[in-house]
Amino acid sequence: MRNRKMAALTTVPYVIWMALFVVIPLVLIVVYAFTSKAGGFTLQNFSAMGDYAKVFARSLWLALAATVICLIIGYPVAYALSKMGPSFQRTAIMLLMLPMWINFLLRTYAWMSLLENTGLINTFFDNIGLFDLINKIALSLASDPSAYQPIDHFQMINTQGAVILGMVYNYLPFMIMPIYSVIVKIDRSMIEAAQDLGADSVTVFRKVIFPLSLPGVLSGITMVFVPSVSTFILSKLLGGGMNMLLGDLIELQFMGGAYNPYVGSAISLVMMIIVMICMTVMNRFGDGEDQAVML
Amino acid sequence: MSEKLINLENIHKDYGGKVVLDNINLYVRDKEFVTLLGPSGCGKTTTLRIIGGFETPSAGVVYFDGKKINDLPPHKRPVNTVFQRYALFTHMNVYDNIAFGLRIAKVSENVIKDRVTNMLKLINLPDYAKREVSSLSGGEQQRIAIARALVNHPRVLLLDEPLGALDLKLRKEMQRELKSIQQQVGITFVYVTHDQEEALTMSDTIVVMNKGKIQQIGTPVDIYNEPKNAFVADFIGESNILDGVMHKDRLVSFCGKNFDCLDSGFEKDETVDVVVRPEDFEIVPIEDAQLVGTVKSTIFMGVHNEIMVETEDFTWKVHSIYNAEVGDKIGLFLTPDDIHIMHKS
Ligand SMILES: Nc1ncnc2c1ncn2[C@@H]1O[C@H](COP(=O)(O)OP(=O)(O)O)[C@@H](O)[C@H]1O
Ligand SMILES: [Mg+2]
Fold first, then answer.
1. pLDDT digits over A209-236, tens only?
2. Are both B222 and B244 inside the same structural domain?
């Protein structure tokens, strides 16, 4: 009896923490989302969001693109990693995690200085004479040489591509790690059983390794998509002004020029719902059988 | 077709200097039931994996049907394996597990359906096609693993302690079932076990192994009645093993007495292992006895009693249908063919 009371007591700080920093803010957001400036109940905050449909679409699109690219890069990396020797695996994983210990902003600033019009990459191309070469070829092909504008840099910064690059760079480890950890746990004897039954290495991958790695793929997708869709700053620093994302929009409503915490709360709420839907769908895929029985 | 379906010649295997298989020579005939028998860690699984293609020998040649197959990968070998821990595909149901090999062989789905259904009948689980493997008991998984291998009609089935995880009753049942499947389907079995009784009841040929070496190859009767050395005698059935001295052909001494025996061809006064099976003793009146001792303990074992008899130099294990009281003095008698003499290994 006493033990149980003690156990209950130890959960108190945790409960207080949750209440203070999770439940109360959540309640506030919901309340604010349905409150008008005058203080009454309203749905107007949601209809006001229509103005920002483009931001929603762009956020979803960029996050989706980043997720797909992470998957395309991350899966082969995770698979190759799982085939290496144990000491190589440890080292590679540490190197993979290393950038995460550097502040997010610093990493992003580093990318800025790489991608800028007069940044490291463009300077390098300039020095090896790439732009001169391109100009020469383009000029010789141009129908009206006098109208040709010679280039002296590639436009990399302030593009959607740069934002996607930033997302991929920052969240790629979240794709690799879950896939890797699922693949290394696959029972070797199952792979041997498949070989024993006549499967060559492609078939073993297609019929055993890939299906068994799907839970890792799904959690990788979730772990990249969710932070990507809610990211902010990244778009401002790498995408310039014209690629505002949901995260930036929310910031703008609370801190910026468009000060309107009511609309900001409504946007936050909608974004949370998007994220929750996304995670539920992923979970459902994850253990389809169990869920199907429950439905 | 060659007489030797599988032939291992001078197989060695070491892992980073640690010798696991030392000069293994053995062959398996078509449709034969061969058992690799030995204590845990003696190299049975490694031998089986070399036949299956999952390990390459450090030295030596593996022949299948007369052709060298050292470099043939597992998926091209005409053998199938029942793995020690079944290794069923956890992401597929029973039907898809059994159909796996046939689908890779591009057999048509109609034929697959027939063969899987027949196989499920053969292993006595006709209604299990749609079951998930995680919902099966150990015995059921084991039978599915056998079906998954057998359905491909392999020339040879390799089985690695397939009954190890089952309780005694189910194990006995499955032993009979496996043996009858082997005879019914008419394929070659290479069977691994550390259970001597299992080996004796199921096999045509037993290969006794210890510490990476083959100790003896023979029929169950040969191995039981004429063990080649003390290890085999001890491992197969129960034995009394003690030191003796071979004075000349057919005369051995132990426990301070001379005994007639049937063995010959030893050095004069060579120190040897003397092996006597517990069931070979005859209990006789003391005046007729060769050995006289005191009963230390007696246990009822079902068909017989196990009586421990202490003589001056040795405590004998005696199996007899007669009983004796603890503390009794009793006499023991051995005929020459009850005494087995072996070189010290
Ligand atoms: N991959 C491996 N690396 C190192 N040692 C191994 C490896 N596989 C097996 N061994 C060793 O080889 C010996 C024989 O193993 P195994 O063939 O599995 O024995 P058994 O099946 O008879 O119990 C054991 O001592 C085991 O530790
Ligand atoms: Mg083994």
1. 999 999 999 999 999 999 999 888 888 8
2. no
Output the CA A211–ligand 2 centroid distance in Å.
29
- Residue A286, pLDDT score: 63
Supply the pLDDT for residue B345: 73
Residue A4 has a CB neighbour count (10 Å cut-off) of 8
Residue B222 lies in a domain: yes
Binary contact (B75, A193; C-beta < 8 A): no
The CA distance from A57 to A246, in Å, is 9
B54 plus B144 within the same structural domain: yes
Contact at CB, B148 and A211, closer than 8 angstroms: no
Look up the pTM and report it.
Answer: 0.81
Those residues of chain A whose CB sits closer than 8 Å to some CB in chain B are 187, 189-190, 192-200, 203, 207-208, 211-212, 289
Residue A12, token pair as written in the block: 């108190």
Output the average pLDDT for chain A.
Answer: 88
Q: Are residues B172 and B253 in the same domain?
A: no
The answer to whether the Cβ–Cβ distance between A198 and B132 falls below 8 Å is no
Strands B79-82 and B156-160: parallel
User: Residue with the nearest Cα to atom 7 of ligand 1?
Assistant: B15
Q: What is the per-residue pLDDT across A185-212, written as a single tens digit (0 to 9) for each?
A: 999 999 999 999 999 999 999 999 999 9
pLDDT score, position A209: 96
Domains of chain A: 52-116+156-294 (1.10.3720.10)
Give the mean pLDDT per block of 10 residues along chain B (345 residues).
84 95 96 96 96 96 95 95 92 96 96 96 92 90 92 94 84 88 90 94 96 96 91 91 93 93 92 94 94 94 93 93 91 94 86
Distance B124 CA to ligand 1 centre (A): 34
pLDDT digits (tens, 9 = 90+) for A123-148: 999 999 999 999 999 888 888 888 88
For the domain that residue B150 is a member of, what is the CATH number? 3.40.50.300
- Of B19, B36, B45, B81, best ligand 1 pocket probe by most atoms within 8 Å of the beta carbon: B45
Nearest chain A CA: its distance from B18 CA (Å): 20
pLDDT score, position A196: 96
Q: Which of B14, B15, B48, B56 to mutate to test the pocket of ligand 1 (most atoms within 8 A of CB)?
A: B15
Please name which of A252, A275, A253 lies closest in space to residue A264, comparing C-alpha atoms.
A253
Residues of B with CB under 8 A from a CB of A: 52-54, 73-76, 79-81, 83-85, 87-91, 100-101, 104-105, 132, 148-149, 152
Q: How many domains does chain B have?
A: 2
Q: What pLDDT is attached to residue A291?
A: 35
**CA proximity to B24, closest of B213, B150, B278, B163:** B213
Instruction: Look at residue A241 and tell me whether its pLDDT is greater than 80.
Output: no
User: Which residues, other chains included, contact A45 with Cβ-Cβ below 8 Å and sequence gap of 6+?
Assistant: A33, A34, A35, A36, A262, A263, A265, A266
Phi then psi for residue B295, to 5 deg, are -75, 120
* Residues forming a β-bridge with B304: none
User: Helix or strand or coil: residue B36?
Assistant: strand
Q: Which residue segment(s) compose the domain that B101 sits in?
A: 4-230
Cβ atoms within 10 Å, residue A111:
21
